[in-house]
Amino acid sequence: MDNHWNLSPAAESAEIAKLKPKYELFINGNWQEPKSKKYFKTINPANEAMLAKVAEAGSEDVDAAFKAAETAFKPWNKLSGAERGKYIYRIARMIQERSREFAVIESLDGGKPIRESRDIDIPLAAAHFFYYAGWADKLQYAFPNKKIQSIGVAAQIIPWNFPLLMAAWKIAPALACGNTVVLKPAETTPLTALKLAEIIEESGLPKGVVNIITGAGETGALMTNHSIPKKLAFTGSTEVGKKIYKAALEGNKKVTLELGGKAANIIFDDAPIDAAVEGIINGIYFNQGHVCCAGSRLFVQESVYEEVLSKLKKRMDSLIVGDPMDKNTDIGAINSAAQLKTIEEYIKIGKEEGAEMYQPECDLPKNGNWCKPTLFTNVAQSNRIAQEEIFGPVLAIQTFRTIDEVIDKANNTPYGLSAGVWTDKGSKIFQLTQALNAGVVWANTYNKFDPTSPFGGYKESGFGREGGVHGLGAYLKY
Amino acid sequence: MTRLNVQKTYKIFIGGKFPRTESGRHYAIENSKGEHVANMCLSSRKDFRNAVVAARKAQPAWAGITAYNRSQILYRLAEMLESRKASFMDEMNSLGLSKKQAEKEVSSSIDALVYYAGWCDKYTALFSSVNPTASAHFNFSVHEPTGVVAAIAPEDSPLFGLISVIAPSIAGGNAVIVLASEMKATSAISFAEVVQNSDVPGGVINILTGNLAELLPHMASHMDVNALTMTRGELDVKSQASLIENVKRFYDWTNKWQNQDPYLILDLQEVKTTWHPVQKSVASGGGY
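ok -> structure tokens follow
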């Protein structure tokens, strides 16, 4: 299409990544070859080229990591909060210093647009360490009239959609609260966590306080069933989250779960429509829709439906899909071939269920995993694309007439992670934000995150909070 | 002339009414001398499910009234209990509690109600936050009730135990279905009479009598129950496995229920964070 301005390519250099061909396990402050002798490949989902080989932690390796964390716990816990905080501040600063390198690796390994990894993932990860660093010597103020205690060793398992940011969400509050950790990044996006291990090594953090091991679901299961960790922290699918909850109950471990979502994004007829359309786009196409809090169910009030839909389609037509390393790219590569298959399956289901699909015309690169931004109209509440988490750039649109109707529809889901409301009327905003059963509600904005702001779900979207003063409760006994 | 006293028929308490168990089953309570005290309803899975329906229906309105109003309603429960102290003590006496034990049991119950009444309009102020985000947004986090709570009351404390699991649940705007002490169940049903006469809407407090081992798996597995609180030790493996099906919140209050503690209210709350842009007259990078 030549009827809009074409931007010249503005690709960031992959050379900045400085990747090693092979990564070992970061256990007890050392890089250790896996006792399992196994390695797996991590690839660039935008061109399917191998980026590095990564160790697969087996049973002995997991055991070694937890033993290191257990040994490190006592001296780390004895350290004053102020000193602990200084280590965490140092990690925050070192991430900031190497932010460009981290952004490049995040986009190479995960497929997300460099604009997002540069402006959102990496700065927020550094900010999260910086925020919790300051809590380390102030914890008692957050729990009036309670004696607080660190938990011990935490097992932390994170997903592939925000690899470094999720590592920060897990590690920073755990350390601030005096715990030690074993963290496993997702198998498709291990590289920034391993780079973080390099920073942790350089920072002088006592050995064993943070251990980073790599592997897939099997390694994760070894971690959650291990006897040493007294705390499990998981971000990922509701399906896996339930298994981890079970392991926690059986092992009498403390647990926090940040699971799936199917958020309602609600547009009233008095909303600022142009801003709302940007909010819809940001709600569902941010990070290729690989976002647990994505606004994947759009509810538009009937009287503005035609206007919203035509503006939305026009805006979709201008989205640039392609090379994640290009600074102009809006939608990058789907994180893995497996995830692409899942998304394509849901698109097929949507069509079969009678919903009407729209995708803009755009050229997709030949290699790699790609999905055009997609929306469905004529969607019924019972359709699977309106009920199940797709975790891709697929929007299901429904309409409504009254406030009560949209509250009922929005809450009619087992999930409860997030929601969005667009209206110019203050009292209506508060009516909606109070009535929606979700842990994060964005009014006249969407997909905003901040270390000071607690994040987490209601119902089957999990429990416990990450971020803010409420995030401390996840890593303390009181 | 001797007069035969009139004995009470103990039923269960669901949705503000006193039905018999739908199962028609009963069990007998005896005192320490082995004398018959009363027949109680042996509640069934169906009774529990009915109670969940009543609780779910009642919960939004209970959460929706003002915190001040909720506080007064809890306080009113304490007032009513105080005026019936003697009859509760008599009833406990027939269960085998000494006069001193019974006095302590009722007094502690009244005091717990007053304590939690006072928290209704305070815990959100103390434990909520306004979050200073690094962008132009107004952002705050407040507590909201988890929803419908299933609670296991302690076995040995017939009234104080019951009230100690109910009060923190309802102070925070939840509706509760509580399984009373099995062998000291009479106080719980007499307390239901207090509840029915109070301004607690029907369905906010539901009280069942019966057997823990029979009902617990159903309480743990019900998909429309948001949280389970336990005061009689660890959960069995099967109940543990059931909790995960709807990611039900679980709290072991075995060593906590005795305490007057606002953190018990917080156990049954969700934290909701709300964001809204702030318009700025200088370019400050926030907004939509």
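Chain A touches chain B through 48 residues (CB under 8 Å).
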